[in-house]
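hey can u run this one w/ flavin-adenine dinucleotide bound, need the structure tokens asap thx
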Amino acid sequence: MAEHVIIGNGVAGIKAAETIRKHDPDGKITMIGDEAYAFYYRPQLPEFVAGKIEEDRLWGKKKDFYEKNNITSHLGKTVTGIKPDTNEVILKDNTAINYDSLLIATGGSIKRRNYPGSDLNGGIVQLKTIDDAKNIKEKVKSAKSAVVVGEDFLTLSLTEALHSSGLKVTYLLRGDRLWPEIMDKDASDILLLRLKGKGITIKQETDIKEVYVKNKLIHGIITTDDELIDCQILGIVDKLQPSIGFLNESGVNTDNGVLVNNKMLTNFDNIYAAGDVAQLPADLDSDIPEINVRWLKAWKQGQVAGSNMAGNDAEYDDIASISATQICGIDIVSIGVSNPLNGDYKIMRGDYPHPEIDVYKKLVLKNDRVVGALFIGNVQEAREVTKVIKNRTNYSEIDKKLLKQMFDLNSRFGTFHGFLCPVCKLELPIPPDAKVGDKITCPACGIELNVTEKMLK
Ligand SMILES: Cc1cc2nc3c(=O)[nH]c(=O)nc-3n(C[C@H](O)[C@H](O)[C@H](O)COP(=O)(O)OP(=O)(O)OC[C@H]3O[C@@H](n4cnc5c(N)ncnc54)[C@H](O)[C@@H]3O)c2cc1C
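ok here u go:
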């Protein structure tokens, strides 16, 4: 009987476990995760912090899921090393667990930059785990204001969550724009306007010079412009770094993340990696190897890895870099190379940006082929454009109706009546005969939802 071991109890790990169980009903499955909780929906943490949803809406699996599926779980346990020569995983308490096939699905952890005074942990927060979310909710009770510094979408999520919790929030951007990985300046300006409209103070090209601490408590920060800003909560967020430290002595090939091929296989023939920790080769001629934080990507890669661990021959053939989210009520979808930095790319963006409309759409071409796209505020054509990019279509071959709908402001709102899945944030098709209270399942990530009046509007 095969022994499958999965390190990481996030979406990539859980999807792999479910897939293995489907293909190998009798195989032994062991899951190890350092968070002491059953699987939960990480992208819903900001809404939980903001008090928009209760804790019970976070759970993706009940505690008895593991027992019911004959999975041995070690939750709250940390893996400190693996030994491919003896097929062993080593836990912090030195327990060794044997495997025939192993999945590394350890995601990433938020790197925090240090500033003078920031070694005092008291008021400094981050939002990655359910424990982080609970910690923030507790601190918000006695706080009036917060400062957040950073530019990518984890920082944006934290900023929005703190603001929605009722705090006065100042957001420091070290550069001139938000989320530079996917956004050009015009796209970023649309979102910045929305954040300002909500009452969030934005300071661009400003960093922290010093954290102002009194009686071991954070009282504020001093900016690089020598301004003192009061705050009791401080969010410092840098990029998510793949959690690969425990692989140092293992011989598993890593770069930024664990290097895998499109079967999610590492350089060992029985060790796989999937999700935020995995690094696929560059796709779409982008020169940029992809390892970005994306729920749906982790979900699909877990499925491919699980299938292969159970003896199949599955391949991950999606675009590695699709990102869908919602910030301040604005839908954002980025596909492929959405913000190229060198001059080999051509940008098509029709009538956008427009000073009065907070919608923005663009296509990125390389040698006439569409290699990337960005949608802000209206994501109506995102699914169609994903197919265009995946099929390596030339710009001249794209359906003219699709281009008109994307770029012609007169048809900008077209017929989109979609609803975005609260977990994977991709369009959720609502059946035409759906009624309030019916149950529907997101075809992309599998979450089950009750149909509400809002969805039917
Ligand atoms: C606040 C927030 C909002 C987000 N919003 C969106 C969104 O709107 N859209 C979107 O597409 N994505 C979003 N994401 C990103 C998305 O959640 C991730 O891409 C996804 O969770 C990655 O899944 P994973 O299984 O690869 O890793 P993870 O979900 O990070 O799970 C990995 C697990 O492995 C554990 N682990 C790590 N090291 C060890 C070890 N040595 N031993 C044992 N266990 C270990 C970790 O603690 C963790 O529990 C959001 C993330 C956050 C934090």
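The chain has a mean pLDDT of 89. anyway lmk if its weird
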